[in-house]
Amino acid sequence: MRLFCKAPKEEVMSTFENVTVVKQANSYFDGNVTSRALIFADGSKKTLGIMMPGEYEFGTEAAEIMEIMAGELEVLLPGQQQWQAITGGESFEVPANAKFGVKVKVLTDYCCSYL
User: Fold this and answer.
1) How many other CB atoms are found less than 10 A from the CB of residue 104?
2) Fewer CB within a 10 Å sphere, N or C end of the chain?
3) Separation CA 82–CA 4 (nearest Å)
4) What is the pTM of this model?
5) Domains, in order of start, for the chain
6) What are phi and psi of 11, to 5 degrees?
7) pLDDT digit of tens for each residue in the chain (115 aa)?
8) β-pairing verdict for 54-59 and 99-114
9) Among residues 80, 86, 89, 88, which one has the least CA distance to residue 103?
10) Read out DSSP for the chain?
């Protein structure tokens, strides 16, 4: 399992085409974390969202890759004991059926891909 990485520039997609956008926002932690779902023609799903500064714990159903577009946070991944610093342009993977913590330092823009 790859814990975190810096995505090469050629792999980073700045736009998505031919997607369905779910208009209703997902809102968590009293509105401090929000996202919108994108559904692709092949049935795959991503969410685009914003996290306000704070500490949050998330749970996964499916494995996911969280790409940090802009911002700064620390993540505590399952099975790890040390928090890892993640900034814009980096990503991390979380296995299915797991919990992970984040300490968001500044307003953070993210894209979550479900595997």
Assistant:
1) 22
2) N
3) 13
4) 0.83
5) 18-114 (2.60.120.10)
6) -90, -15
7) 444 454 444 445 577 878 888 889 999 999 999 999 999 999 999 999 999 999 999 999 999 999 999 999 999 999 999 999 999 999 999 999 999 999 999 999 999 999 8
8) antiparallel
9) 86
10) ---EEEPPGGG--S---SEEE-SSPEEETTTTEEEEEEEETTS-EEEEEEE-SEEEEEE-SS-EEEEEEEEEEEEE-TT--S-EEEETTEEEEE-TT-EEEEEEEEEEEEEEEE-
User: First and final CA of the chain: distance in angstroms?
Assistant: 13
Lookup result for tokens 């159903």 = 61
Give me 89's structure tokens.
């342009």
- Which value, to the nearest 10 degrees, does the dihedral of the CA atoms of residues 5, 8, 10, 14 take? 50
Instruction: For residues 115 and 96, give the distance between their C-alpha atoms in angstroms, rounded to a whole number.
Output: 9
In the block, tokens 């208009």 appear at 23
Nearest by Cα to 46 from 69, 74, 30, 73: 69
